Amino acid sequence: QDHDDVIYKTKKEKYEAVLNEIDGCYHKRQPVLVGTTNVEVSETISRLLQRRKIPHEVLNAKHHQREAEIVARAGQPGSITIATNMAGRGTDIKLGKGVVELGGLRIIGTERHEARRIDRQLRGRSGRQGDPGESRFYLSLEDDLMRLFGSERIAGIMDRLGVQEGEVITHPMITRSIGKAQKRVEAQNFAIRKHLLEYDDVMNRQREVIYDRRRRVLFGEEIEDLVLEMMDEWIESLFDRTTEEGTSIESWNLEDLQRALAGVIRVFLDLNLEELPSLDRDELLEKVKQMARESFERRKGEVDPELLPNFLQGTILGYIDEEWKDHLYEMDRLKEGVGLRAYGQRDPLVEFKREGYSLFEEMLDRINEKSLKSIFQSRILTLTKPKESIPAEQMAAVHRQAAGMAYAYAQAPQQERQESQAPAQAQGQAPAKSQPIRKGKAPGRNDPCPCGSGKKYKYCHGR
């Protein structure tokens, strides 16, 4: 049975009523499940029960190791379990012996959640599979949901009825009013999620384009055709920046056009002054594209055919990843500030789509330009055949300044030591013993420097 909600003025009164209800159920051995909205409230209820010396269990994220054990014992006679509304979901609380006669499991909710679905899930912990059970929510005007919706109106009703401290209001109208407040919160949350999804849809479309190009590069699907597509896109973008369709050639920026073509794809456009007045923009565009293809064919001849696919893949892939990461940061910064456009009577979503598209076009243009410039201008170094290495057993590390020391002698190969000892042993003499090198007394700081400069040691080599 689901009872109507009870409302108190303050949280203190609400908690006092909850404790009294738990105490009564504990003494008649009826199991109780107390539902809270968060871990902080569950720990508060736990401390209050400890003061009354009522044994209980707390089921929250801090005790997840014992969750199965706590849930298994929640239906036993006299058990008190405190749980957040999200804990213990999807499990059946089995009732112990004699609990059915006591009325089954009792659910006590300490606060309404913003979503009615979670409240229904809490009520559904009891009365499962034909077992008896009952539930009730204890609320106060200081609860978050009540403060946002309806607390002033309900407080006015309490004042008109002359409700004193500790008294409670229980009426179906109150329960319906709280349900309407939850509906409004759910509608707001739905609008927020829908709005966020619309923003994410802009990024998702851009992500599909960039991932499709990246996939083509990774799997090497006609990588040379992709380079030609990138050249055409970059040339068209360059023409849009330097020339304008339907205008005279005098207004074109031919110097920047020639400089960019030569510096990126090694296309040297030589325009005859006599042909300029009759020059058509579309004809010039097709001419440049043809020259770019010829330049790419020449570039392919300069690179080892075995190295060409890996060279193209690595170059394009590197610039795609680099520019895409920077673009994501730019889009995040745009999303953070685009909401202020609403003060200028502009739709932030429309502004985000428009500016996001411009940033995406600029990013694609930078990827094309940097990739093409690297493909056409880079020098590819081939590895030379390494020299034959000397076997390790024929090598020995010798320090020239320590050639006469015992250290060098000890580090020398066994064969060399035997050869050096052979003449002495042939004459019946023992091998000469290496003498240690003795270091002289160091000069004092005020003594003349041993180098002969005439200065004191501390001003010369003693620094």
SSE arrangement:
Elements: E1 6-8, H1 11-27, E2 32-36, H2 39-51, E3 57-59, H3 67-73, E4 80-84, E5 105-109, H4 116-123, E6 133-140, H5 144-148, H6 151-161, E7 169-170, H7 172-218, H8 223-242, H9 254-265, H10 281-302, H11 308-337, H12 348-377, H13 406-411, H14 414-426
Parallel strand pairs: 1-6, 2-4, 2-5, 3-4, 5-6
Antiparallel strand pairs: 1-7
Helix pairs in contact: 7-11, 7-12, 8-9, 8-10, 8-12, 11-12
Compute the gyration radius: what is it? 43 Å
CATH level-4 homologous superfamily of the largest domain: Helical scaffold and wing domains of SecA
Strand content: 5-15%
Write down the domain tally. Answer: 2
What class do helices, strands and sheet pairing give? alpha/beta
Quaternary state reads single chain
Along the chain, the helix and strand elements come as EHEHEHEEHEHHEHHHHHHHH
CATH topology of the largest domain: Helical scaffold and wing domains of SecA
Largest sheet: 7 strands, mixed
- Unreliable sequence segments: 402-412, 422-427
Mean pLDDT: 78
Q: How many H/I helical runs?
A: 14
> What's the β-strand tally?
7
Q: What is the terminal separation in angstroms?
A: 94 Å
Q: At the first level of CATH, what is the class of the largest domain?
A: Mainly Alpha
Across the major sheet, the strand order is 3-4-2-5-6-1-7
**Shape by Cα distribution:** extended
CATH architecture assignment name of the largest domain? Orthogonal Bundle
